[in-house]
Amino acid sequence: MRVFLTGATGYVGHQLALELANKNFTVHALIRNIESRNIPVHTNIKVFEGDICNYSSIRRAMKKCDFVFHTAAYTNLKCRNIDNFFNTNVFGTENVLKAAYMLDVKKVIYTSTLSVFGPSYKSIPIEEAQPRLASFTNDYELTKSMSEEKVMEYTKKGLPCIILNVTRVYGPGLKTFSNGVNRLISMIIKNNILLVPNNLKAASNYVFIGDVVDAHVLAMESDIKNAKYIIGGENIDYENLFQKIKIITKSSTKIVKINFSLVKTGLTILNAFRNLVGKSSLISVNMLQSLFMNRISTSKKAISELKYMPTSLQIGLMETINQL
Questions:
Q1: For residue 224, which of 160, 313, 159 has the smallest C-alpha distance?
Q2: 86 and 155, same domain (yes or no)
């Protein structure tokens, strides 16, 4: 059986490509840069040079495939040009959907993000039916939400599609821009002092990379044709997450808290100066606020319907720390 996959040089896509190949699927991996060191290597993985912004390259690589996994996305929150987000996340997604529809594939599994829901309300975990309660804080969230609308348009045309809204992913794998949790763990392991904003009661959901890969396979194998699932693990705030990492690593790193408003002011001034001298910005204030929003969620629908089984945070962190 053949599957088409985008994003094979990314954190999730790379692991997913290898897992599918190990399960004896022939993986047609669409690769923009065929010189990339991140291309997964396996006898069952066939590399097709192309770009999701180029419809003909997608169609050529997708021919004779039974299933489609679309994990590719533009995630660089430092970028201030919405065109980069729109071209990949919206226009590119529409190209993938159009090709899948025209080639009559069995099902599309689309990798999205929990952030399309916005923040969670008080202590109520986000569920699939929750409407967004706040405005978009960055172009990534906006364009991923727009891309989900494209997916829904094609389900109405008769294309079976499952959307997986993934929470904050961590675990062994490629070092990529989107792998922020692993970078945090590395900083706690290596640094004597870690300066952090003092809003450490902000809680989010964290999911192990192996569980994300398993969820994609389960979605493909399921008889369910059209659905949306939150794929996550455990909810925890920064303060307790830092402590858990420190205990596992036996780290003596001192966590120094800085006033959140002061951090935002400092970032605004520093980024303005960097722009004046022609240097790229550090993280934006919007990005900082996004990182410190409450985003607790539940995966009970995926557990019930897909038989999804999340790994405990303790076990997942231990595996990640051992690799790092």
A1: 160
A2: yes
